[in-house]
Amino acid sequence: MNINEIIFFKVNDKQKLNEIIKKSAEYAFLSLPFTINRMNYGFNEISERLNNIFKGKIAEELFFTFCKEKKIPIDNSKCITPYYMIDKKDFLYDNYEFDIKNNFYWETGNFKDFIKLPALVPNRHPKDQWSKRNKSLFGKKTAFVFTFMKHGEIINGNRYNKFVNIILGDNEYNLLQEKIKKYKGIPLENEPIDMKNFLDDINIRFVQNEIDYMELIITAYATEHHFPIFRDINGYNVNTYYYLNDPWSNWYEKSQFGAKFLNGVFFTKIINATAPIVKLPSFLSLISTNDEKIS
């Protein structure tokens, strides 16, 4: 893909933003006990995990909003699962079943090189998301679409968060800890009775961090034809594949925080199957070839 094929989708309608934020936060609180499988998560761990689910849901909702506004005929109705069940794919389109892979970048000073960002799929263990890349749930071809959002800014080496976050109070922490111990991250077939009114006891509060709009950056997609170019990257053992076949000399390097991309625009601590998005086809090209008009 090339830089002109990147889609920048901005939502600045305050009512719509508030709806997305509220819906995503409620989902995060409800689903957390069925995704965390340890019993001794501390306050910081639960807060981080809660916000990760929250931010991922926001990206998903923004993507669906983009498709609705641009009249892209995706089908996510078959993929919707309740908070207490295992996630399926995110949406169906054409002959593909898609997972949305969103990541956050840090602004380091008028960053414009979005074409250099990495496509990432978690590959921490043999049963992680990368291992399911060819697993079809709907009899279609499997695919990933890679999106990005701005988390904040790095100024003089210090990070300044600019993204909305959930504030986890002591009461909310204790309630979540109780449910995590009870359900142990195990998905269920039916909604538990004690979770039906769970949100009534939760006071959801946010750090807004100057949110006047949200922008989703929709870049590339990958199918079975592109999976062979992905390589594991974790920042501790640099894979020489992307030094020998690297479109940029400083694409990523080892750091104490994991893999450091583009001099700090992007970090990841875990092992990911990785490829530069420039080596993948654009999502725009996929929807354009199916007579969808994007303006």
Structural account:
- There is one protein chain.
- By secondary structure, the protein is of the alpha+beta class.
- It has one domain (3-288).
- It has helices at 14-31, 43-69, 170-183, 241-244, 283-288, and strands spanning 7-11, 91-93, 96-107, 118-122, 141-155, 158-161, 165-167, 205-207, 214-222, 231-233, 252-255, 258-261, 266-268, 272-276.
- Strands 1, 2, 3, 5, 6 and 9 form a 6-stranded mixed beta sheet that branches. Strands 4-14-10 form a 3-stranded antiparallel beta sheet, with no helix packed on it. Strands 11-12-13 form a 3-stranded antiparallel beta sheet, with no helix packed on it.
- Helix 1 packs across helix 2 (43-69).
- The longest helix is centred in the N-terminal third of the chain and has 27 residues, at 43-69.
Instruction: Give the C-alpha Rg.
Output: 19 Å
Mean pLDDT: 90
> Fraction of residues in helices?
10-25%
SSE run: EHHEEEEEEHEEEHEEEEH
Name the shape in a single word: globular
Number of discrete helical segments: 5
Query: Which class best fits the helix and strand makeup?
Result: alpha+beta
- Alpha-carbon distance between the termini? 18 Å
Number of structural domains:
1
Low-confidence residue ranges: none
Oligomer designation: single chain
Characterize the largest beta sheet: strand count, sense, and whether it forms a barrel: 6 strands, mixed
Number of strands: 14
Beta-strand content: 25-35%
Could you outline the blueprint of secondary structure elements for this entry?
Elements: E1 7-11, H1 14-31, H2 43-69, E2 91-93, E3 96-107, E4 118-122, E5 141-155, E6 158-161, E7 165-167, H3 170-183, E8 205-207, E9 214-222, E10 231-233, H4 241-244, E11 252-255, E12 258-261, E13 266-268, E14 272-276, H5 283-288
Parallel strand pairs: 3-5
Antiparallel strand pairs: 1-9, 2-3, 4-14, 5-6, 5-9, 7-8, 10-14, 11-12, 12-13
Helix pairs in contact: 1-2
